[in-house]
Task: structure prediction
Amino acid sequence: MPQKSDDLKPDHQLLYQTHSPFARKVLVFAIEAGLQQRIEVIHHETSPTNRNDAIFAANPLGKVPVLVLPDGMTLYDSLVICDYLDRLHEGRKLIPHKAPKRLHALRLHALAQGMCDAGVLYRWETARRPEPLRYPPLAEGQKTKLIETFNYLEASLDPKHPITIGHIALATGLEWIEFRALADFKTGRPKLSQWYEEFGTRPSMVQTRYSGQTHD
Result:
């Protein structure tokens, strides 16, 4: 007989960062799957220009999130971690097993992941890189990817679709873009805006708000 979630004790560690959309995706996923009590969240600051030896010891890429399993094995990146977590719970799977539902969920996840990747590059060229070294055409190219993604979502997102990993990645990604004030995805996009606002009221989102700044 499976344990009740209230009886579970942390047997996994999530190496985390409070202002990473990729790390937050994993934590929101864990909460939605009812697994939060099995996970000890440990915050780490990471940056490409500021080495964190503890993270490099767990992930040779030096990035979070990293999930440390009970046997000491470490998992990365966020999609791999979420796939592992989805196998631990008995509820409805957030990464469907069969096509076409699986393909739709993973495609939306890929779009959200790519949106965040573009946002990271855009932020480097507009805020993080020393101003004399910034390359405005690259910034504009990344911003174009963001705008095109927002427009696509406005036209195609189904607000009634059951939650999948794709929706979790999208919601955490959009809130990160808003947190960093990178680009406006609300103006002129009422469908996307309403979905985002409603998703943001979920306990998994309320409990994991972004905070902090990158330390380069």
